[in-house]
User: Fold Alpha-aminoadipate aminotransferase from Thermus thermophilus.
Amino acid sequence: MKPLSWSEAFGKSAGRIQASTIRELLKLTQRPGILSFAGGLPAPELFPKEEAAEAAARILREKGEVALQYSPTEGYAPLRAFVAEWIGVRPEEVLITTGSQQALDLVGKVFLDEGSPVLLEAPSYMGAIQAFRLQGPRFLTVPAGEEGPDLDALEEVLKRERPRFLYLIPSFQNPTGGLTPLPARKRLLQMVMERGLVVVEDDAYRELYFGEARLPSLFELAREAGYPGVIYLGSFSKVLSPGLRVAFAVAHPEALQKLVQAKQGADLHTPMLNQMLVHELLKEGFSERLERVRRVYREKAQAMLHALDREVPKEVRYTRPKGGMFVWMELPKGLSAEGLFRRALEENVAFVPGGPFFANGGGENTLRLSYATLDREGIAEGVRRLGRALKGLLALV
Assistant:
């Protein structure tokens, strides 16, 4: 019998599959006593546990034959209608996906070939990098910060290259927490429209703003201008529950049809029970729920910034988010976030080193902190521990 070689059996794309750095780090942070700023997990106190239990029982009792059956790939019609009204589109422009991560995977499959150029911010969401990398593209990047991507650098790239699409998170970017101002959004859209390019706008944090109002999305600005080239991704994970894995994509019918066909080959449809449960939970009191979500995250962000201002050495820089779930930190040149991570674990506090958020490498002195899951006392104590680790690292320089 010939010995089986799995490495010879795998296809080329299997070699591009990499473990999620965050998921691997989370394994290290599960030990007792660790205060974790690592995972971008929503606040568990916001989960509608009792309401979900009652709604699920009601759905199964009254509509079990629908909830437990196959369904159309495009999604549960009442939920598509809800999304359409929320986003301001027609229901037939909406595809329900199994989390935003599936939407990213579908976009990669539909638009990318091996060697295709795709343009991202640096840093950018590592889940998107992971999803797109499977297709073997050529990553183009532009620097990003507290006010979004560097538009001058973007313009220079677009003079030389024609990417299959631009992937952007204009509102409370993961990992930087950056918010692209309205004038920059308009300038960016103008660049895109002049070249007829596709934009994939990931707006998972759209409702987590701390100010008085939400900025219009690139998608909304594009629709106002009559431009169909923005594919819009949204999710219920941050405002309801990530465990239900219900998200959506909105796109021009020609693009949406291809995404639907790709989804048919992936999972046929998002679980019907989950879709119906999300719809039930959101039919009433959605505005009040969003107000509570914003208040909770605003208070947690304020607690983290107050603690950082008090505990972190002055030579360490960090962002001051206006929404979302993250603070982005930059260590002085020559210091390693990986080295800080090891010291932080000794202090029983964890975070995510920034390197994996850079598609083409770099960012070794950066890190991401999430304030979402800890309460204010936990945030204060975690930052105290992080401050001790930072001071210990800086003392070696």
Observations:
- The mean pLDDT is 94.
- The CA atoms of residues 150 and 199 lie 16 Å apart.
- The longest helix spans residues 286-311.
